[in-house]
Fold this protein.
Amino acid sequence: MRLSLPRNGLPAVAALDLLVALSVVTGLLTPTPTGLVAAAVVAPLSALGYVHSYRLFRAAREAGASPWDALRTIADALVPLQVRMLMRAEHRNLASFAL
């Protein structure tokens, strides 16, 4: 049986990890028992997702892809199409503000 949670939840978990880490470093969030339990639950899933991403990257590189193409392969495999389309639209909107 294959666990699909890391594949589907990796972008959200990575963003949550970054948010919690930045909050703790800047002093906005102090660790509470609930936060520590949540971190203990999320950390193994994050590690599993990161290992899965690295394996995909390594497989793409061994297949002859450039580093950027390998990263694109990981994004295609881990990020749903609707999220990629939404992010592309948001980037275009932000670029239009600069013009």
